[in-house]
Design goal:
Elements lengths: L1 H31 L19 E8 L2 H15 L6 E8 L3 H10 L2 E4 L7 H10 L8 E4 L4 E3 L4 H7 L7 E8 L5 H23 L11 E4 H8 L8 H11 L4 E11 L5 H21 L1 H9 L3 H8 L6 H10 L8 H21 L5 H21 L4 H6 L15
Parallel strand pairs: 1-2, 1-4, 2-3, 6-8
Antiparallel strand pairs: 4-7, 5-8, 6-7
Length: 399
């Protein structure tokens, strides 16, 4: 019995240390949001972007694709810059293809036995000659551009610059409890891993869409990547290796349609957590190199790969309060951990969000937690095959 108690205490201590480290890291990022930030002024570049390729990998989701194309074309038609809208179509209906072409879309038929986002992009890059000085603007199939500041910003980007840019991706809809939770999660991520990180001197996180990059740099980096999930994490890695600046732009938005289906949400999160796990394994040596060489901001950036997924983090932090029964000191430490985590969350969540988030958690919390606890059984599938999020036909009620 005494041996079992020692083992339980040891395991609990290790989990608690991990949770506490994650909670303190998130609290640091939250507090980073309070740091002052110099306002950027969009000034016309001496050599502005020559051409922009809006690039949209599209695997099925035909109805959502058509809707986003129509909305984006209304905005892009006002641009004075040269641009083209390229859809990397994979398993689209023939009727959808015809409709896209009639709208003026450049349709690239993806031919892949095992389709993934990164492989579709690489296939297009291999067969496309990009103009010197052009840029690529990567969007997801359900993303909607926002007109405000877009034109002025694109005119301010120097075509000879090496910077990459990440727009703020925010929810296009909150028409259900699940969509509201997804929107809240995205908002918190923006505050922690982009605004907070950037103000602290840590590289902001890429999202996988809403990113603008010089075409030559994008092509060079993307040619190195062939993964089922987590390609944005690998892009971040190569940006660090090549010392290429990445700038987060909270004043420029891309709207993202949130799913209202809890099973679709689980599939999406399974893909993300699996990708995080695989990337963390592959880049552990880079974490150690950054620490040993005292590249602290790089170390803190790689450390994000080892943060506990949020739902599991909250669940474990609450469950660890029961460690009071094992050891009073462990219990007090568990209380400090939960307090730090809640402070990190509350610091970046507007008060107006609390009622609807609380209601959504009450209604769906137990099922979401169960889905997270059981998602390990699908990790192998997520590693071998890209798990596509079905957005259905939910309306964007944000406009």
């Amino acid at each position: 019995m005494e041996l079992l108690l020692i083992i339980a205490t040891s395991i609990t201590t290790l989990i608690l240390i991990w949770c506490l480290a994650c909670s303190l890291y998130l609290l640091l990022l939250s507090l980073g949001n309070s740091y002052p930030r110099r306002k950027k002024v969009f000034k016309k570049a001496d050599k502005p972007i020559k051409k922009i390729h809006f690039l949209i990998p599209a695997y099925k989701n035909d109805a959502v694709l058509i809707k986003s194309v129509e909305k984006n074309f209304n905005i892009l038609s006002k641009l004075t810059l040269d641009w083209e809208y390229v859809v990397l179509g994979d398993q689209l209906e023939n009727e959808t293809k015809s409709q896209l072409k009639s709208l003026g879309v450049v349709l690239f038929d993806v031919q892949l036995e095992n389709p993934t986002k990164s492989r579709a992009i690489n296939q297009w890059l291999e067969k496309t000659e990009l103009e010197q000085g052009s840029f690529i603007f990567l969007l997801d199939v359900d993303n909607h551009l926002v007109e405000q500041n877009l034109h002025d910003f694109l005119l301010s980007v120097d075509r000879e610059g090496a910077d990459w840019y990440q727009f703020m991706r925010t929810a296009a809809n909150q028409n259900s409890d699940i969509a509201s939770l997804d929107a809240w999660s995205e908002m918190v991520n923006n505050k922690w891993f982009r605004t907070g990180a950037q103000k602290l001197g840590i590289r902001p996180a890429l999202i996988g869409s809403g990113m603008l990059a010089p075409a030559d740099s994008f092509e060079n980096i993307h040619a190195k990547i062939d993964v089922t999930g987590g390609f944005d994490k690998w892009v971040e890695h190569y940006l660090i290796k090549q010392r290429i600046p990445l700038v987060y732009l909270p004043e420029l938005q891309v709207l993202d349609q949130k799913t209202s289906n809890i099973d679709a949400l689980q599939k999406q999160r399974t893909r993300w957590v699996s990708a995080q796990f695989e990337t963390a394994k592959s880049l552990f040596a880079e974490l150690l190199k950054a620490l040993i060489s005292l590249r602290i901001t790089d170390f803190l950036k790689y450390a994000q790969l080892y943060l506990i997924p949020r739902v599991l983090h909250i669940f474990l932090s609450v469950a660890l309060l029961f460690s009071f029964f094992l050891n009073e000191n462990l219990g007090l430490l568990a209380l400090v951990n939960l307090t730090a985590l809640l402070l990190a969350i509350f610091w970046v969540t507007p008060i107006s969000w609390f009622p609807k988030i609380a209601m959504a958690v009450v209604k769906n919390g137990s099922r979401i937690i169960w889905n997270y606890l059981s998602m390990g059984k699908d990790f192998k599938k997520a590693k071998e095959k890209f798990l596509v999020t079905d957005h259905g036909n939910s309306e964007d009620n944000s406009n």
